[in-house]
């Protein structure tokens, strides 16, 4: 049975083929050892749920980059993120983030409307638009800049931050062929920014976080790593989600799209279930890693202690046991308890923001009556097979 890298090569740009493969694997090898990657793969929704909610057995710590690596080195920057913490220290960080993220999410309406309409207006002027470079990427970087309190007037700086942050997200997610200089440049930027937030706090997320951490929760080096993580986590995921769903509707499911446009016009509440289905379908973070703290039995397989285990969120999201007719995109799907935001103690605290932004983007794009693909060629993908996704996809408006 294929490992992670075989799956990536064999189904490059073929999402329907990959979904079918996952279904075969659910039946034949729901837990398997990937020789090439040197880690275990867990595919069933039930097993992924158990794994993510049992941090005593499947720990997030041991990232491969030790937190003891020198501050300012790539390994030191990556290893210090709270993503790789367990237990009380981790829960305390999540608690600090949850409230401001919820507050900011509830205030995003006008910003999302204005930003989306400006991006679409520019596309309309040209008659065509890159769904990634002209819409999903600028929307996601402006959004997360706004959330964190990064000035948005310097478009060139924001684009550089995005490039550097892509490199940081690559190393964090285990894709190592990347621009390490970009990681260091981003580190220096966030070092300056966190110091500025310390001196002159406002009501953005980073000011709130820095103030809470300075009470003894996290040291300044850890705060910089966490800020870099937040900038990447809120950006790459949304940038991947929007084109993935639109490509599917425009290319693979045009009949569903026509009905959906009509239905949304008369029943706007459909936007909520449509977005959840889009999140299930797109699963921007395809897998997350954990390490076994002791030997464990999962779907008949014994996994020894000290092993790296990937929970394949993407595979769990097409498991028939949790999602009837799992390989169909059903905009009105009920009880859609997908694993797109993870589960358990590390569940995504940015989910309220992601949901609002995705809803606003889908509503605006699907309201465009003439939106169509410029070409039906499979679009090029980012090299990172976990969080990469479509790199460019031209549409006419
Ligand atoms: C569609 C958009 C998004 C997706 C698919 C997504 C996905 C995920 C996933 C799968 C996790 C769990 C990681 C793990 O279990 O190891 C996670 C955690 C997290 N995400 Fe998101 N995310 C999205 C948007 C955001 C946004 C907008 C933010 C911030 C503004 C954010 C911040 C976080 C944070 C703080 C965590 C917790 C990390 C931890 O406790 O270890 N995410 N996200």
Q: What can be said about this structure in brief?
A:
By secondary structure, the chain is α+β, with helices and mostly antiparallel strands. The chain has 15 helices and ten strands.
Count of folded domains: 1
In terms of DSSP E residues, the strand content is 5-15%
What's the helix count?
A: 15
- The helix content, as a percent range, equals 55-70%
Low-confidence stretches: none
Q: What is the CATH architecture assignment?
A: Orthogonal Bundle
Number of strands: 10
Note the run of SSEs as H and E. HHEEHEHHHEHHHHHHHEEEEHHEE
Whole-number average pLDDT?
A: 95
Oligomer: single chain
Would you kindly provide a written description of the structure presented here, covering whatever features stand out?
The strands form 3 sheets. This protein has a 5-stranded mixed beta sheet with strand order 1-2-8-5-3. It has a 3-stranded antiparallel beta sheet with strand order 4-10-9. It is built from 15 helices and 10 strands. Helices cover 56% and strands 9% of the residues. It has a single domain (4-396), classed as Cytochrome P450 (Cytochrome p450, Orthogonal Bundle). Strand 1 and strand 2 (39-42) form a beta hairpin. With 397 residues, it is of the alpha+beta class. The chain has helices spanning 4-10, 15-28, 45-52, 74-79, 87-106, 109-126, 131-148, 155-172, 180-199, 205-217, 220-252, 254-266, 270-282, 313-316, 351-366, and strands at 31-34, 39-42, 58-59, 128-130, 287-292, 296-298, 301-303, 308-312, 372-373, 394-396. The protein starts with a helix and ends with a strand. The structure holds protoporphyrin IX containing FE. Protoporphyrin IX containing FE is lined by residues 82-83, 94, 97, 101, 144, 147, 230, 233-234, 237-238, 241, 284-285, 288, 340-342, 346, 348-350, 353-354. Residues 82-83, 94, 97, 101, 144, 147, 230, 233-234, 237-238, 241, 284-285, 288, 340-342, 346, 348-350, 353-354 line the site of protoporphyrin IX containing FE.
């Amino acid at each position: 049975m294929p490992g992670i890298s075989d799956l990536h090569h064999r189904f490059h740009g073929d999402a329907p083929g990959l979904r079918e493969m996952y279904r075969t694997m659910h039946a034949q090898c729901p837990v398997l050892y990937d020789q090439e990657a040197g880690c275990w793969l867990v595919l069933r929704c039930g097993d992924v749920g158990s794994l993510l909610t049992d941090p005593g057995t499947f720990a997030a710590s041991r990232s491969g980059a030790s937190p003891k690596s020198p501050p300012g080195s790539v390994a030191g920057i990556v290893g210090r993120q709270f993503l790789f913490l367990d237990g009380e220290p981790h829960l305390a960080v999540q608690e600090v983030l949850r409230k401001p993220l919820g507050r900011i999410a509830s205030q995003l309406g006008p910003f999302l409307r204005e930003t989306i309409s400006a991006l679409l207006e520019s596309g309309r002027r040209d008659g065509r638009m890159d769904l990634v470079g002209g819409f999903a990427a600028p929307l996601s970087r402006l959004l997360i800049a706004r959330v964190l309190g990064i000035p948005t007037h310097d478009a060139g700086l924001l684009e550089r931050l995005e490039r550097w942050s892509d490199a940081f997200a690559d190393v964090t997610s285990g894709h190592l062929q990347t621009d390490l200089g970009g990681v260091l440049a981003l580190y220096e930027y966030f070092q300056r920014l966190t110091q500025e937030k310390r001196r002159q706090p406002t009501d953005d997320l980073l000011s709130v976080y820095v103030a809470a951490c300075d009470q003894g929760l996290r040291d300044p080096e850890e705060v910089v790593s966490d800020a870099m993580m937040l900038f990447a986590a809120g950006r790459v995921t949304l940038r991947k989600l929007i084109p993935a769903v639109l490509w599917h509707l425009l290319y693979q499911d045009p009949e569903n799209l026509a009905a959906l446009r009509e239905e949304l016009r008369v029943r706007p509440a459909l936007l909520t279930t449509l977005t959840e289905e889009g999140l299930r379908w797109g699963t921007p973070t395809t897998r997350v890693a954990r390490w076994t703290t002791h030997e464990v039995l999962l779907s008949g397989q014994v996994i020894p202690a000290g092993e790296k285990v990937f929970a394949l969120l993407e595979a769990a999201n097409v498991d028939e046991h949790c999602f009837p007719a799992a390989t169909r995109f059903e905009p009105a799907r009920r009880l859609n308890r997908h694993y797109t935001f993870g589960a358990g103690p590390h569940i995504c605290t940015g989910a309220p923001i992601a949901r609002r932004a995705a809803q606003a983007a889908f509503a605006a794009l699907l309201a465009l009556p003439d939106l169509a693909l410029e070409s039906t060629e499979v679009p090029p993908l980012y090299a990172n097979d976990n969080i990469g996704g479509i790199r460019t996809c031209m549409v006419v408006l």
